């Protein structure tokens, strides 16, 4: 019983020693880095529309692919993790964060081999994104289709 | 002007993510998963397309657009083929993103050495 209390006390005491995140500065960093990544994306999109045969609707595909390539290379050089430490959600939320999670998980397990290390761990973190995306899209898709059929 | 909107909207979406990290103590994985689900929900109500029209890459680059494209592809095929179309179309629009992420992630992991 006393041990339990000690554990509770420990959690309470430790909390006051943990560094408090500086909410405002973290948000400003996330805003500028995240905004900058989206700005680069917008420039790429305009570039693909003007110099290649892409429309506004399809230009998102080469833009995403280019951003993913850049993010994968930056992860390989170890630069993206430094950006991530600085920017927090600013580099996590854009699609580049998705590419970073895939590449870094694969790199981390490289020593276990190409098949058992790289290939099986590629989706270690990104798997959650795909699972929840597909499940929510399926549920919402069925509901919307049902309503569409119902209302004619 | 679209460049400014892309910067501001993209930045604001990241600020929401940062607040979820700091205030609600969610892990990065939970933040990304909630954003994907949020993107699909916004698309279900037809709101995400309006955001893309307004902000361009500010709405298509954040991971919320992944959920939006999944549902969008599913609905496009669903309208043409019924309920099985939902399974046929889910990955139709996100194919470029997922393929390039797997391909480039694999190649980079082959070439580079892990850091740190």
UniProtKB/TrEMBL annotation, chain A:
Protein origin, superkingdom: Bacteria
| TM annotation in the entry | 30-52, 64-80, 87-107, 127-147
**Pfam families documented for this protein:** SpoVAC_SpoVAEB
* InterPro entries with a match to the protein in the record: Spore_V_AC (IPR014203), SpoVA (IPR005562)
Q: What is this protein called?
A: Stage V sporulation protein AC
State the UniProt keywords alphabetically: Membrane, Transmembrane, Transmembrane helix
Q: Could you tell me which species this protein originates from?
A: Scopulibacillus darangshiensis
Automatic annotation (TrEMBL), chain B:
Q: Which domain of life is it from?
A: Bacteria
Q: Identify the keywords attached in UniProt to this record, alphabetized.
A: Membrane, Transmembrane, Transmembrane helix
Specify the species: Scopulibacillus darangshiensis
Q: Where are the bilayer-spanning segments?
A: 6-24, 31-48, 54-71, 83-112
Q: What is this protein called?
A: Stage V sporulation protein AE
InterPro entries in alphabetical order: Spore_V_AE, SpoVA
